[in-house]
Amino acid sequence: MHSFISFHKTSKDMELPEFFTNPFDYRPHPYCVQAAEQLQEKLGEPDSESKGKMYGVLIVKNKSGELGFLSAYSGNEQSQFSDIPFVPQVFEITNPNGFFRKGEAELNQMNEAIHKAEHSEEYKQLLEDLKAEKEQAEILVNQAKLALKQAKKERKAKRKQAEQEAEHEHILEQLIRESQREKSQFNQIKRACKQKVEAAKAKLDAYQKEVNELKQARKKRSAQLQQQIFDSYLFLNAEGSVKSASDIFRETDAKVPPAGAGDCCAPKLMQYAYQNELEPIAVAEFWWGKSPKKEIRKHAYFYPACKSKCEPILGHMLKGLKLEKTAKTVKKLQIEVLYEDDAIAIIHKPSGLLSVPGKEEKESVYSQAKTIYPQAEEPLIVHRLDMATSGIMLIAKTKTAHEILQKQFLDKSIQKRYVAILDAIVPHEEGSIKLPLRVDLEDRPRQLVCFEYGKEAFTKWKVVERSIHQSKVHFYPITGRTHQLRVHAAHADGLNTAIVGDELYGQKAERLLLHAEEIRFVHPTTNKAMTYVCPAKFDLEKD
Question: Can you tell me which residues the record assigns to a coiled coil (predicted)?
C-alpha cells in the first residue's frame, strides 16, 4: 500500500475520535492537523505566483492496527510532487491509453474539421457570393423601380395631353398596354434577382448544413464520452456497495454530475481506503498556496468539502460509517425584544438562528415574532441577518410600517453599523471596499467576487481597536448582499483577513464574531429619527 504513510510522531495523550469526521462541518482532529503538517513539510512553501490547490488527509488504521494517513489533491492533472505518495484518481481519466484520451483525440479532430470548414476559402467565397447577389439584386430592383416610377409619371402627362386629341381612347389603350408591359418587365427583373440570390443562398445553406452536421456529431460524441466518464467513476462505501457518478447524481436535483465530480480530495481518499481495507478514522482538507481571484481560500486553512460535487458522492461513500453529527445548540435560541410599540419592534437575534424559515429548519426570527405578536400583519420581517450573525433586526407589525421601512432600505436611508473581530491585524485605519458578489453555483451558500455577473456590493469600515493578533472593526454596509461583510473582510482585495469564526471564508470557532450593533432609521408612524444600539457580547482576545 504505497500511499499509506505512518506517522513520524504520535502522541499517547491523543485519543482517536469516536465518530468519523463530518466532512461538511468539522474542526480538524489533532491527528489530521499532524498529518497535514507532515504533508505540508513535503509540499514546501508555495511560490507566491503559483496557483494554489486543495489537499486532503485521511487518518486510517491498517489490518495490523497501525495508524497512518493517506494524502490526496483536488483535480485530475498529474501532481508536480512525484515523491509524495498521493492516492490515485478514482477513475484514471488522464491515462494516455484510456477511452477518454482517445475520445478527446476524436473530439479534437472534429473541432479541427469544424474550424477548418468555418474558415475555408470556399466558405468565405460562398458568403461573398451571397452578399454580392443581394447587393446586385438591390441595385437592379431599385433601378427598375425608378424607371417604373418615371414611366408612370410620363404616362400621366401623356394621358392628360390625350384628353385634347381626337384619338383619345386609342392613346389610353396604348398607355395601359405600356404600363402592363413595364410592370411585367419589372416583375421579371425581381424574379431573376430573387432566383440568383436563392441559388447563392442554397449553396451556402448546403455548406452550412454539412458544418452543422459536423457540430451535431461532435455534440453527440461529447455527450457519449461524458456519459462514459460518469459511468466509469465507481464509488465504494463502507457497506461494500458500488455506485457510479451517473447513478448517484440521478437521484439529485442536478440529475447530471458537474464537471470534476469525483476528483476532489475526500472521494479519492475514501475510495483508496475502502479498496485497500483501511479503516477511515478522520478526514480534513486544506488549501495550500495562492488564493483564486473569485473564491476566498486562505493559505494553510482547513475547509469543508464542497457541496455540489462532493455532497452527493460522499452521501453514498459514508454509508456504513458512524458519522460525527453536526453540533447543534441544545438550548433553544430565542429572540430578545429590545423595543416595541404599535407599529414596530426592535429585537436581538442570537447567532445560529435563521431570520426566516429554511427548507429543513423552521425555527426562526419570523416564527418566534409570529408567536409573540399573533395579531401583527404579515410579512413581519423587514430585513435579514445571516444565520451566523447576531444583532439588531426590525420587525414591522403592520403592512404600512413594513412598506415604509422597506422603502427606507431600498433608498439606503437606513444606516447600520456592525462590529466584528478579525483574525489578524488590519494595517490601515479606515477605508471602503467595492467588490461585486454572486453566489457560488457549485458550492452554495458561498459567495464569489465576480466583476462580470456579480451585484454591486459596497462597504465602509473603520478599525476601532487592535490586540497583538486581532482587529476590532466597525462595518458600515451601503448595500446589503448575502455574506457581504464576510467576503469583503476575507477577500485578498478587501481586508484580506476573515472574521473570527467564519467557517466559510476563514476558520471555524464557537461562533461568528459579527454583530449588528446599531441601526438608524425614521419611525414609520411618528416620522422621528430613531437610533438603537445593542452592544456585542464579544470582544478582542486578551493579549
Answer: 116-227
Q: What DSSP line would sit under 30-81, residue for residue?
A: HHHHHHHHHHHHHH-SPPTTSBPEEEEEEEEE-TT--EEEEEEESSSSPPS-
Q: What's the DSSP call for residue 479?
A: S
* Claim to verify: residue 161 and residue 248 sit in the same structural domain: no
Q: Is the pLDDT of residue 543 over 80?
A: no
Cell numbers describing residue 289: 498556496
Burial of residue 223 (CB within 10 Å: 0-12, 13-18, 19+) is: exposed
Domain housing 282: 5-91+237-317
Residues listed for the chain: 543
CA triplet 3, 18, 309: central angle to 5 degrees? 55
Confidence at residue 49, expressed as pLDDT on a 0 to 100 scale? 75
Place of cell 467595492: 434
Please give the tally of structural domains in the chain: 3
pLDDT band at 12; cut points 50, 70, 90: low
Contacts 24+ apart (CB under 8 A), 322-329: 322/18, 322/19, 322/20, 323/19, 323/20, 323/22, 324/17, 324/18, 324/19, 324/20, 324/21, 324/22, 324/26, 325/19, 325/22, 326/22, 326/24, 326/25, 327/25
- For the residues of 316-355, what is the DSSP string, one character each? HHTTTS-BPPPP--SSPP--EEEEE-SSEEEEEEPTT-BS
Mean pLDDT of the chain, nearest integer: 91
pLDDT, tens digit, 9 for 90 and up, residues 298-313: 999 999 998 889 999 9
Residues 194 and 137: beta-carbon distance below 8 Å: yes
Which of the 8 DSSP states describes residue 364? Answer: B
Catalytic site positions: 386
The answer on 63 and 211 residing in a single domain is: no
User: Among 365-379, 436-450, 526-540, whose mean pLDDT is lowest?
Assistant: 436-450
In this structure, is residue 108 part of a structural domain? no
Here the cell at position 442 is 457549485
Helix axes 168-232, 99-118, angle to 10 degrees: 160
**Which of 229, 245, 272 is the C-terminal boundary of a domain?**
229
Residue 535 has pLDDT above 60, yes or no: yes
Q: How sure is the predictor about 166, in pLDDT bands with cuts at 50, 70 and 90?
A: low
As a whole number of angstroms, the distance between CA 178 and CA 475 comes to: 86
Question: What are phi and psi for residue 163, nearest 5 degrees?
Answer: -60, -25
Average pLDDT (483-505) is 95
Helices (H) and strands (E) in the chain, counts: 10, 18
Burial of residue 415 (CB within 10 Å: 0-12, 13-18, 19+) is: middle
Cβ atoms of 311 and 305 within 8 Å: the answer is yes
Q: Is 401 in the same domain as 522? A: yes
pLDDT above 70 coverage of the chain, percent: 96
d(CA 48, CA 186): 75
CA 71 from centre of chain:
27
DSSP element (H, E) containing 131: helix 121-162
